[in-house]
């Protein structure tokens, strides 16, 4: 007979009795049950969310030997202090340092006051609110700016109606729930799902999978089903917009079965999965070269559209920067990119420039311009644009052998050579290092110069999140938190780090979140993805496989 253990915990961690999960919050599928219960994957009694004393339930079940799933529901089903409101986009205004700046959620105090006054004259109940954000390991925090909001409504429909009236008056804005602001006094609710893999009992494998084609996107549930996985979560950041590259292409490092198929965003953290050495969070850079007859050329990328570098962090000459800059597509007209058969099932992107096509023995079989086309079985290619065209033509002649090398470099600059049983997915920012909260938005490109509104929306505010890391016992922990709704508020990045720490993680990193956040068990999506269209197709996923099952 299957059993489930539910514990209601107070802020001090005292068990108040065995009860059913909170019936007031039924939106998600129940996790599968098992015949045994296990200790909560936590070094603290409750999640560090909201004030002390909030109700919290934890339901822990076994999915396979060495793998547990814990669902945590914290907080009140309803918080009377939370409401819907309309957040107005603030134009530069006559008093702004940059009157021609486009409208944003946050601006200087003078611009916010000016807009609020105009709105009140037109019959809107506007107010100005200061937004402060906490300090992190590499960002001072403090005042991000001021926002303008209108009204307080019990129903989203009322806020939407007011937004429509606002638009008719010539302004733009959005209906938002104040529970997404990230205030420490909010009473929830929160829904967090935790997968824990204990290497002492786990006999399966941890894999990363991009599906049949590196360039295409697949849902986490489809990737899980294709590999017959026990459980899965979405993984790294990826290209979504065709204008930013090839949709589905990892926007950062991607290593699968030991092969580097996507280059790192310079120095950003990643999650490394070793079948033989466990899981860790590591920062990588890389170098790539093409060598022929003593001449060596430097590579700019691997398996991406030449000239488009999603999340930046590429090479000198990239615009606007060669440093990481999240959700920005840097450009470089002079690029040299290597392609492998995993990209779009052996078909390379077309465009201006030149392409050297290599067979399975690294010999040039074709030099074509414009670039783009199919690869021979087991073959690869090199694409050059701009000034790199002459460089490639100088070394690539039909019949010549070209040696393409890519090498990952760890934080000390040492070469890192993954084994065939190693997978690496990209992430950021770092959340926990050596058992201490260590959040790195500046180093990882989440602080946008002159755009505090981006930080406000992505880092400061609550969103759905996917986190991963390893605890002191060597257990791999994968976490999803639902958000962008009233049934689960989501997490800010600071709250994500606090949750990771409370779960006992020694090292942890943020993975892709928002509409991508998905957890699957037994081929069923058990969380509530936030996109209106349902589960989002993603670039890759982390899979927990039973014994003798291996993905990709």
Write up this protein.
- This protein has 552 residues and is mostly beta strands.
- The protein is built from six helices and 39 strands.
- The model is unreliable at 1-43 (pLDDT under 50).
Compute the number of strand runs: 39
Rounded radius of gyration (Å): 25 Å
Helix content: 10-25%
Specify the structural class: mainly beta
Beta-strand content estimate = 35-45%
Count of individual helical segments: 6
Low confidence ranges: 1-43
In round numbers, the mean pLDDT is: 90
| Order of strands across the main sheet | 2-1-3-4-9-34-33-35-31-32
- What summary fits the major beta sheet? 10 strands, antiparallel
How far is it from the N-terminal to the C-terminal residue, by CA?
35 Å
Name the shape in a single word: globular
Main features:
10-stranded antiparallel beta sheet, globular
Question: Secondary-structure map with pairings?
Answer:
Layout: E1 5-9, E2 15-18, E3 56-64, E4 67-74, E5 84-88, H1 109-121, E6 126-133, E7 142-153, H2 156-168, E8 173-177, E9 190-197, E10 205-209, E11 218-219, H3 220-226, E12 231-234, E13 254-256, E14 259-262, E15 269-274, E16 278-283, E17 285-292, E18 295-298, E19 301-302, E20 308-312, E21 324-331, E22 336-339, E23 347-351, E24 354-358, E25 364-368, E26 371-374, E27 380-384, H4 388-395, E28 403-409, E29 415-416, E30 422-426, E31 430-433, E32 436-437, H5 452-460, E33 465-471, E34 476-481, H6 493-502, E35 505-510, E36 519-521, E37 524-525, E38 537-538, E39 541-545
Parallel strand pairs: 19-22
Antiparallel strand pairs: 1-2, 1-3, 3-4, 4-9, 5-7, 5-8, 6-7, 9-34, 10-39, 11-38, 12-36, 12-39, 13-14, 13-30, 15-16, 15-30, 17-18, 17-28, 20-21, 22-27, 23-26, 24-25, 24-27, 28-29, 31-32, 31-35, 33-34, 33-35, 36-37
